[in-house]
Amino acid sequence: MFVTGRPVTGTGLALRRVARRSEDTDSPLAAHPALRPYLADLAAARGLALREEVLGTGQAYAELAATLVEAVTSPEEPVDLLVLAYGVPDVQPGRNTALRLAEHCPGRPLAFAVCDQGPAAAFTALRVAAEFAATGACARAVLVVAEQAALPYPLATPAPMPDRHAAVALLLETGPAPVDVRSHPALPPEAVGAVLAAEVAELVGERDGVRLVLGPGVDVGPETGVGPDVLRAAAGQPYTGTWARLAEGEPGAFLVVADYDPVLGYLCVAGFEKSPRPVAHAAVG
């Protein structure tokens, strides 16, 4: 049962803290003996066989992201909501990772996950957090984006796979402006540049101090029209790379984050402010 406290003032969310982590080692949980028959049954249902060279490797998201949740939260600031976004399945499919991560938060946050949307999952999670904040029942929300690089069976359909295990945690707190998340489904690659330019122009308006962060799926030039203050996510981290760039350096007063998934054809764009309080960044582990 979800129990909320007295509504707080504020209809928007602003970025307060960011922490990121990458990991090259594998979790011992990936070698649990119960996983082989479970995964074999899943793969067989699609006519696939297990990849023996990958079985027993990978990372568990609860362990990967727990230190990040602790890094962006503090005991005197209880969290009301935690949303986990991921594209690659966890190596421990039988447990609720979002609830485990919520145990590392001060307060008793509502916690759940968004998946099966490729890189768009993080934008959906951000939209959910924004809608929750708009009710007045969310003073702080934690967004966790995670990916792990091991899949013990062949992909049934094309999907981007990361080079390394990685996770990012964002702490968002109430602010004066709402988060604006926009999605364009079934968008062909040749249309991305023009659509993104129009969205950036509308989101930015007359603002100064704008920082644009482009995901690894976005391959556009200066036609986006926001000047040189652009951060590009490195290739190889299709789910966390975009959000990890927010932990590098001092962002602008207003952030525009965009990514494109050429497999699903989704262009996602989000505009939100940083907190008026100093934004803290951290690389953990």
TrEMBL record:
InterPro entries given in the database record: Thiolase-like (IPR016039)
GO molecular function: acyltransferase activity
Protein name: 2-hydroxy-acid oxidase
